[in-house]
Amino acid sequence: MATLNVRGQEALIQFFRDGTKMGQSWAQMESFEWNPDAEIRKVPILGEPVDERDIVANGYDGTFVLYEEVGKHTPSEIWADIAAREENQTAHPDWTIVIVIRGRSASRPSKRITIQKVVVKMDGESISGKSEYIKSTWSWSSKKLLIRDR
Length: 150
Hints:
With about 150 residues, the chain is mainly beta. The protein has one helix spanning about 75-85; strands at about 10-15, 20, 25-45, 50-65, 95-100, 110-125, 135-140, 145-150. The chain is globular.
């Protein structure tokens, strides 16, 4: 029996700062990754031979790689705003990130991922040769992640 593998998908991202969309449209991403921030705890119970297992879910963590596009808020501008607020000890904005992942075939439905009250950190920017995209790598963490089929 043959197995089918899922081919690459197109991922688009949009930032919202305090409920206001940044930029005019969606920005293209090279990759997006999310992981549950959870741990399994083993709790000894007096008189029981086996520990009780419990899972503690703390939220989600992940990374993404974003292409810089002309005419939009650049990743370095977004990071400069975050760094300036931290330096001035002013409140950080309420960030929301919306990601749409579109499959290459009609049999694979699109997904919409909304990450609310997210903390973002720019890990770095990569500038390659003249025919390559300028890319920035980001880390994020949030307590709430919603995934919906579109």
